[in-house]
Design a protein that fits this description.
Blueprint: E1 2-6, H1 11-20, E2 26-31, H2 34-41, E3 46-50, H3 56-64, E4 72-76, H4 91-119, E5 122-129, H5 140-160, E6 165-172, H6 195-206, E7 216-219
Parallel strand pairs: 1-2, 1-4, 2-3, 4-5, 5-6, 6-7
Helix pairs in contact: 1-6, 3-4, 4-5
Length: 226
């Protein structure tokens, strides 16, 4: 399979890149920070590209880099979060989360779907948060962006599943990633999911035969959301 991973320079995206590399005919990694991404790609049989999912042209260019034949799998692990009181937040705070978490997901899907239609099949895996289905105080824009991305996946499945395109929404509880860096409240990290545990599940989903489909999967830490 040919695989594109957005948000591959750290956290869940990095773990997926390491776990899926041996299963990929061609692996493309995209992230905003090229210096960090190149360190990730070093030692992996992968093509790296600096790009931001909030920029549609970047997403289109990344998909175009995938070469060869075989199933096309696009994995969107790019995401940002700002937590705090809604009435004290700024338009910049909202825009950053909406642009990456929702518009970025839409951009990557829009770039991938024409390729998948041409190939007759394809799989998009969107890494989401339990915030897509559970409201948290101090996370209005984050919850809204993730809920929108979940609705997007459901809509695309309704439109394209009969044409061989499967969209999988991976809804995660707390994961020990750099997303928590600098946050005022951080759950106990030893109780969180590890990026490697998430990557193991994503690799399984990516390799699933196209004679079946999983629309959504919820993966939680053993003690719950946290």
């Amino acid at each position: 399979m040919r695989v594109l991973i957005a948000g591959a320079s750290s956290g869940v995206g990095l773990a997926i890149a390491k776990a899926i590399e041996s299963h990929s005919k061609h692996l493309v990694l995209m992230a905003r920070r090229l210096d960090r991404l190149e360190k990730v790609a070093d030692g992996l049989n992968a093509t790296s590209m600096a790009g931001d999912v909030s920029n549609y042209e970047n997403c289109s260019q990344a998909v175009d880099l995938l070469r060869g034949s075989g199933p096309l799998v696009v994995i969107n692990s790019a995401g940002v979060a700002d937590f705090g009181s809604f009435h004290e937040s700024s338009a910049e705070d909202w825009s950053r989360q909406i642009d990456t978490n929702l518009l970025g997901t839409l951009n990557l899907c829009r770039a991938a779907v024409p390729h998948m239609l041409e190939a007759g099949q394809g799989r998009i895996i969107n890494i989401l948060s339990i915030a897509a289905v559970t409201a948290f105080p101090g996370a209005a824009a984050y919850c809204a962006s993730k809920a929108g991305a979940l609705a997007l996946g459901r809509s695309l499945n309704a439109e394209y599943r009969t044409q061989g395109i499967h969209v999988v929404s991976v809804v995660l509880g707390s994961v020990d990633t750099p997303l928590w860096d600098g946050k005022a409240f951080v759950p106990e990290k030893s109780d969180m999911l590890t990026p490697e545990a998430v990557a193991e599940e994503v690799v399984h989903l990516a390799q699933m035969p196209f004679d079946r489909a999983i629309d959504e999967i919820t993966l939680m830490p053993p003690k719950g959301i946290l």
